[in-house]
Amino acid sequence: MTYSSPATTPPGTAAAADRRRWLALAIVMTAAFMDLVDVTIVNIAIPSIQEDAGASYSQIQWITAGYALAFAAGLITGGRLGDIHGRKRMFLIGIAGFTLASALCGFAANPEMLVASRILQGAMAAMMVPQVLSIVHATFPAHERGKVFGLFGMIVGLGAVSGPLLGALLTQWNLFGLEWRPIFLINLPVGIAGLILGAKFISESKAPKALKLDLVGVVLVTLGLLMVLYPLTRGRELDWPLWGYAMMAGGLVVFGALIAYEKAKAAKDGSPLVELSLFKVKSFAAGIAVQTVFGVAMGIFFLVWTVYMQTGLGWSALRAGTTGVPFSIAVSVAAGMSVQKLVPRFGRKVLQAGALVMAAGVLLYIWEADRYGAGIASWQMALPLLVMGAGMGLIVAPLTDAILSDVPREHSGSASGLLNTVQQMGTALGLGLVSVVFFGMIDEKAAPSQVPTEIVGAFQNSLWWVVGVLVVIFLLMFALPGKPRQHVEGGGDEDAVADAAGELPEREAVLTS
Q: Which controlled-vocabulary keywords does the entry list (predicted)?
């Protein structure tokens, strides 16, 4: 959108333009909220999906991991498509596809169709989400963006809290006898309204110097991850066949080919999917490892936590959803304190303290789960969840800035996109590992009366893995800058800032909630 001088713009025209851009903001924020809620809403409905649709353990994993994998694989490409062909155009394509995929999820006839629809939904989210902050950047002048990003932060927090609760309510209510399906169908009216209003009120924008697409890189990343994740999720059911190990080894070969191709791509036209030169920056390389491993921990915890409460303890979806409220509140409060007061004074030590605090909360959870067994109450979970949430809040809010603080500004967009991509890949890997650390501890042939006991034991085993991962995160954080500087929105290279904003780093805290 172009801005005219107040001296030459009639008052009525200026008011209309101002109203138009705030309507555009409301539309893209609503779409972002819809996506954020859709990530957090599914976990709480997993046991209902398993019971109603007859989904196997591996299919349950793919309902969540498939979305994360598709989102990760398409995130950078989605942002570049917006830069090349127009952010408005790709946003509308993304929201239309996301709405269609939501309908397919809601009307899925079997678990296989649901998994495929979730993968499509993740791919469409990767088309839609990167455009949100890019549109904001192109629509609002620098001096107004602080207020706009403040509003976006509120939306992020609201999505974190309301997603699980909304999923619990929609599942519990069993509207029209549809069981879990309304958690997807609720996107239809929102998506259709966003598509119609977005076409009318959002202004088109493109990047003056857009990077080229790297579709070969996308294919290699996706193929490599699939070759690792598929044997992980199916291995237990198939008694760990030899071809599974061979496929995982082949996945590592594919990642080696990806590195070689990306080097050649960078030398050829300077627009690789992965900017390998970034890994020469010690803090960024360590930060990528932190982000990936943190995604693994969260991928494990949130899926097994849901199954533990509903299948193991026999709780309703609503009770499970409300039990998680202390965690969400603690994350939000600690995140605000971390960025505003603690990190400016203590730097990296705050993030490391967060990892240790979160590990302490997980250990407390293990102790309570062991002490109270299947008779544990919601209020008894409140303390470990508060401690875990506080630790997570200390990490997620300042982590992006800590990782990007030593990255050259001309590469800030590529670094931000890669950061969010690997976090999603870590989540997908964690979800794949659930079959080993959780479902692998459950005997499917056990008597029904024994299943809750086995699930409680498997939950404790999974939490020990999470503790181990958090210790690794603590150690990796020693490579982060002692006092990360904060990048100021609107300063420096405008294209780099727009690219970085377009990758939506604020999303990471919600994807793990």
A: Antibiotic resistance, Cell membrane, Membrane, Transmembrane, Transmembrane helix, Transport
